[in-house]
Amino acid sequence: MNLRSLAKFSGTVLLSVVLAACGSNVKLDETPVESRTATPVAGGTGQAQSQVSTVTAPGGSGSQLDAASQLARVIYFDFDSYVLKEEFRPTVAAYARLLTADPNRRLMIEGHTDERGGSEYNLALGQKRAEAVRRALELLGVRESQLEAVSYGKERPAVAGSNEEAWAKNRRAELILR
Length: 178
Fold this sequence. Notes:
The protein is α+β, with helices and mostly antiparallel strands. The protein has a domain at 74-178: CATH 3.30.1330.60. It is 38% helix and 15% strand. The protein is built from five helices and six strands. Strand 1 (39-40) and strand 2 (48-49) form a beta hairpin. The longest helix is centred in the C-terminal third of the chain and has 21 residues, at 119-139.
């Protein structure tokens, strides 16, 4: 191999490495996922105690159908994040109580993003958002078979527009009881 061929080969290899490094900006696995464990019961029995309080549907009927109709159906996320915000934990806990009380119920969790970013990245981010909600529900005792997480990425915006107000409404997970 002569010097010119070696230089040409080295340049091709270097260009391939640079292009491969630039081609993948999906770095969703680097975002920390928060996990919480139950606290032990006083008395040291080793049993876990739930810190979730009960919710009664407005109107005092207490039926599961009434409770389901009162639940929020959307969880919002920060830009480029799939970390479940503290303000939505009560909503997730309410769904967990409803689903654990009725094992025949199912929940579809749809992950969505705003319009910024590529389709592949947004599909991955939407899936991470749906999976974050699914994992939180499983940690609260919901069976895996009751949950389905899917992503629509930026394909189904809730609000049209290219401003922060519209983007904030589109960064969401929608919860659909079946």
